[in-house]
Amino acid sequence: MQLVQQGDPRGFELLYDRHGGAAFSLAYRMTGNRTAAEDVAQEAFLSIWRSRLRYQPERGSVRTWVLGIVHNRAIDALRRSLVHERRRTSAEGLEERQEAPERTDVEAARREEARHVQSALETLPEEQRRTIELAYFGGFSHSQIAEMLETPIGTVKGRMRLGLEKMRQQLVEGFA
Amino acid sequence: MSGEHERYEDTAAPYLLGALSELERQAFESHLERCTDCREEVERLRPAADALPRSVTPVAPPPRLKTALMEVVEREARAEQAPARRPLGERLRAWLPSLSGVPPAAAWVSAAFLLALGIAGGFGISKITGGNSTRTVQASIDSARAPEASASLRIYGNGENGALLRAHGLPPLPRGRVYQAWVKQGSEIVPQSTFDVGRDGGAATAVVEDLRGADAVMVTSEPRGGSMAPTEQPILQAKL
């Protein structure tokens, strides 16, 4: 990250090699569309390059920072555009389509990590998991979710909090 | 403070999940600066929210994504190593290849002439409306390129915190191109964010630059990812 912050393109290339796959995967999971995911990932990485001096290691890992920027960009794209309409109709099963080949130990470890977090999500009660997925991966606001599920906003917010709380416990126990 | 805290109770989770509107997010972040309880809740729940993107099954990005990114990054890294910012005259010459080789003074005259032609050939007249705290500047449009378009710039306070640019009826761009905003200040043209338009040609983008002392906010179309300097004449501009 130091090289990136010095404005070295080789440093940026390393950053992309390390996190580009996860970034594209998240964008694809959210938009459900390879072209839109490519646009989101491209905008996010250019924003990362241009705002590289804003990264503060004490506030989290590079991966968390990168994925946070991708997430925000994907939400912007979903909220301003067409993608949302398409995404609404295909909430499940997107990630099964074109998985990356499992070539290296790093990729195998990431797949294992994905399975671990997925299983933490799956232990949540259905309504909490659904609320969290609609918000985080669907890019819907709490008021939109309340409308879609015909549920009071307070209930939606409560499900989000309870769901994250349980997930946190699951993850802590899982790594203990 | 407790009344304020009650208003934001249960907001930490939607905040971490990105489920607040922009205004709600800003208000909550401002509340976080004052509320220890909410800060603690955000930090307690953050590891779960941060784990969510890691639940995604890996999907391989197309190789052209890296190629396109590296092209832009290498070009910008080279530009950063060159002297900080070129004067406007040089940039105009870069936009107008036919002027290369013309002495700078002549380039300025030619550029001014072309700008005058542009105004005579279809740029509307800008006007300012609004009260003391915000003002709205109507943008001039290049009506030859965007006959249906209109745009305005809403400037908050003295312009220190930028403005919101709204446009309607902008023509759609071909794949691989986006609109980009610019702030012109004296001889400098500072790049701002890129944006797409909706099916109706509508768009809104924040101009985050300090606008005190700025001369105009402009919009051009650029390759996706944006440019460090405009590559064409503005399709619209709001003079300040």
| Poorly predicted ranges of chain A | 88-99
Oligomer state of the chains in this structure: heterodimer
Shape of chain A: globular
Q: Number of DSSP helices of chain A? A: 9
In the CATH hierarchy, the third-tier topology of the largest domain in chain B is known as Immunoglobulin-like
CATH topology of the largest domain in chain A, which one?
Rna Polymerase Sigma Factor, Chain: A
Number of strands of chain B: 10
CATH class of the largest domain in chain A: Mainly Alpha
Q: How many distinct folded domains of chain A?
A: 2
Could you give a short description of this structure?
The complex is a heterodimer of chains A (176) and B (240). Chain A is built from 9 helices and no strands.
Can you walk me through this structure?
The complex is a heterodimer of chains A (176) and B (240). With 176 residues, chain A is mostly helical. Chain A has helices at 2-5, 9-31, 34-50, 62-80, 83-88, 105-122, 126-136, 142-149, 153-175. The radius of gyration of chain A is 17 Å and the shape is globular. Chain B is α+β, with helices and mostly antiparallel strands and 240 residues long. Chain B has 2 domains: 2-55, Arc Repressor Mutant, subunit A (Orthogonal Bundle); 70-239, Sandwich (Immunoglobulin-like). Chain B has 7 helices and 10 strands. Chain B has helices spanning 2-8, 12-16, 22-32, 36-51, 63-81, 88-95, 104-120, and strands at 128-129, 134-138, 140-141, 150-156, 163-168, 177-185, 188-195, 203-207, 216-223, 236-239. The relative contact order of chain B is 0.11.
